[in-house]
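Give me structure tokens for this 514-residue protein.
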Amino acid sequence: MKWRKSTRAALGLVLCVVGFVLARAVSYRETAVMIGAGGCLLVTDVIDQGNDDVRGYVVLFHGLAANKKIMAYLARGFAGQNLRVFVPDLPGHGRTPGPFSFERAESCADALVGELSARRAIDPQRTMLAGHSMGGAIAIRVAARVRVSGVIAISPAPMRAAHGVPGDMLPYTNPPPLPPHTLAISAALEPLGIRELTRDLITGDAGGTGKYLLMPGATHVSVLFDKRVVNASQEWTAETLHFPAELNAPSYAPLVGSLAGLAGILLLAGPFVRETVTMQGTATASARVAADDVKAESSASIVIPLYRALLEVAAVSLLAVVILRFWNPLSFLRLYNGSYFASFLLILGVGLLLIHHKSVRSQFPTKINILLLAFVAGWLLHLLVTGWLDLTFTEAWLIWARWARVPFVFVAALAYLLAEELLLGPITARRKRARLLLAFALRLIAFLVLVFGIFALHSGAILLILLAVYLALFFVFQRMGMDIVRQQTDSPIAAAVFGAILLAGFCLVIFPVT
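Here you go.
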């Protein structure tokens, strides 16, 4: 058993070191600057080959809940053509402070292009506007007002109600005439009719200078890292700016390095959490006695039948979305769709705990030292993962405006996760895999009710659907970590505290500040 632990630790460390080397292997000059424009202070990356004599310029806009760093692969593709690329964090995203709204994001993007032109940092006649999702729609809308050479819109956000997209989900309405020389790219696996609406942009092009491309097998997010998308963008840019096309997609080494390092961290996370919450070799006698007391008390826990747990989550989730239709208790958090999600967790958690109020006290005994160890483990793991992602892949480190919201999202997450621990029962009641599947089923039911609220009750929380895959991946790893804490401490509260820290941190990384 010891050799397995040693091998796992060694492999994790090797992946972290190799990942760091690969992630930092960038051959372009990348400089971060702050640009004031139209009352907006946009933190912007400037990426080029280090030459002053460039062929042209690209202003690249990210999508909703994204940031400039996640656009690096596309940006380096343009830089590989000896273009100078400006990639801003739009308001409420990444390093740029809020507030965010779709209208403000567009006006700030418009002002940025004007400011860069006024400073002669770009030449509009040698400039392409490009963007993904929300940024693709912004690129089209800005180019309709500011005369630039061309546009590349990758999976642009819909701007009119059609193909099953209701009007209340549109980030922008009244789409402008398509700017000249617009390339529209969509993925074959787009959600919510985005693919059809992107194609309609070109079929309705009165000027006839646009082009539409469909990327088979790609998703709404994977197009950001698709070599075919980079090559198509390079070819279109070369044709529009009239220079020889050189199709050379950037290396995947930084992306591979980031994922390798993350895999290394996850390999080390299990032993790290176990050691932190138990503090083997350093735990005091009182801590060990406390843990024994908790185990003795929780062994008498009652296991809630599977069907009842599923029905209760479904019923209370439905009640939560109905309440949220009229009142959002955490609206003051001002997180785009994040306030809604946090309120949903809070109402759902409180509702489930009230149903089982007679069992709550006996189900959740614990000692303060166990809670502190779980708290420390959660925060250290959160900081480790977000620090690595911020260093290599995406801007995940929380700025002050987000840190200030952590306590409120933590409480909301804690309410639900306490209730989930109650429904799952003692760690010995079910096999590890069955426990994980049940937890995932409970969350899937809650998510499906959220989707019902989006389409039937018009909650507007569309970002939850766009992030569904990433929420699912996060839930799996979070739940595995919570089960480790529960197994080591036999404390439902400790497991819930650990998980709530991770969930609060995740929410405050992805939801824009409004």
